[in-house]
């Protein structure tokens, strides 16, 4: 690529060279006409004589010889450790005795992608997909969350107060956050329920489908993990009655349900653990506002900074 201040483009170089070589212009006259130095005019005329039009293109500035380049044995060691252990430049540098920047250049030179773009289980590049319309696929998952005892938990009272949720008799117990998340829009519907039994999950599905329908989204199929409640006839029968096709992830492959798993992480970071709460009631009361903000106002990186509501036509409440 030519420098932005370069006086000659490849087309201009060709014109200059043709004036000198084909039309017999003196070098100084050509240099004055194209406003370049005498040596520049001589260089492009010489390349034109030797290579023709192909010689007018930019050449790489990479040196012909790199005597201080990392030895091939070290490069192979870096590549082997990357394949076997899936570690980044900093850890590769420590094992191979080189600088982290050198390890990074080796990975780039061999076209190895960043670890963040690879599947953790297989090491293969992640295959990302997205359904073409809202409702075509809805993910469903349950996040188990310890309830906050009255007066606050360890975030308010400190670790010395203990963890009452671990006390089976007197503890505050757990909240089961059931979430339905649309693949295309990332629009989410969540309920705080007392358990994750088959009947509870089926009831949640019925209400979730009605919630999406009220927003103009028809749920066509649902994807869940292989939890006990989702494999029972209660779940299958409910899906059949609602006209929904049930799907299940591959065993031991939570990445298949990755969009709702990522929503759970966002939910924890931005609501559940965002600040110290003094009771479960206080935290629960803050949830509807957070979920509304997530659906209607919070920019989503996968949606180019737009909120999920932007992908659901004519969704009410987007600007409230």
TrEMBL record:
One of its GO terms (molecular function) is nucleic acid binding. Residues 130-316 form the Integrase catalytic domain. Pfam families: LZ_Tnp_IS481, rve. InterPro entries: DNA-bd_IS481-type, Homeodomain-like_sf, Integrase_cat-core, IS481-like_transpos, RNaseH-like_sf, RNaseH_sf. Coiled coil: none annotated. Residues 53-74, 298-320 are annotated as: Disordered. GO terms for biological process: DNA integration. PROSITE patterns: INTEGRASE. PANTHER family: TRANSPOSASE, TRANSPOSASE RV3428C-RELATED. This is Uncharacterized protein yagA.
């Amino acid at each position: 690529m030519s420098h932005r201040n370069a006086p000659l483009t490849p087309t201009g170089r060709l014109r200059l060279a043709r004036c000198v070589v084909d039309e017999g212009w003196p070098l100084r006259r050509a240099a004055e006409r194209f406003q370049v130095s005498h040596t520049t005019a001589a260089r492009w005329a010489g390349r034109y004589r030797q290579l023709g039009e192909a010689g007018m293109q930019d050449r790489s500035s990479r040196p012909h010889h790199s005597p201080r380049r990392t030895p091939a044995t070290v490069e192979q060691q870096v590549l082997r450790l990357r394949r076997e252990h899936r570690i980044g430049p900093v850890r590769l540098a420590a094992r191979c005795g080189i600088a982290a920047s050198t390890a990074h250049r080796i990975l780039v030179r061999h076209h190895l992608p960043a670890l963040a773009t690879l599947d953790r289980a297989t090491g293969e590049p992640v295959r990302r997909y997205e359904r073409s319309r809202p409702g075509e696929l809805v993910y469903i998952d349950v996040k188990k969350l310890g309830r906050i005892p009255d007066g606050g938990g360890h975030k308010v009272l400190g670790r010395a107060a203990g963890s009452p949720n671990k006390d089976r008799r007197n503890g505050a117990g757990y909240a089961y956050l059931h979430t339905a998340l649309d693949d295309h829009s990332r629009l989410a519907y969540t309920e705080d329920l007392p358990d994750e039994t088959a009947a509870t999950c089926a009831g949640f599905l019925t209400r979730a489908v009605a919630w999406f329908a009220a927003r103009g989204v028809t749920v066509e199929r649902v994807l869940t993990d292989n939890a006990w409640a989702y494999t029972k006839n209660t779940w299958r029968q409910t899906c059949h009655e609602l006209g929904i096709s049930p799907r299940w992830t591959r065993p031991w492959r939570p990445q298949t349900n990755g969009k709702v798993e990522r929503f759970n992480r966002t939910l924890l970071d931005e609501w559940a653990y965002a600040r110290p709460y003094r009771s479960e009631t206080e935290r629960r009361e803050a949830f509807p506002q957070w979920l509304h903000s997530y659906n209607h106002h919070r920019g989503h990186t996968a949606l180019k900074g737009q909120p999920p509501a932007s992908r659901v036509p004519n969704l009410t409440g987007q600007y409230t």
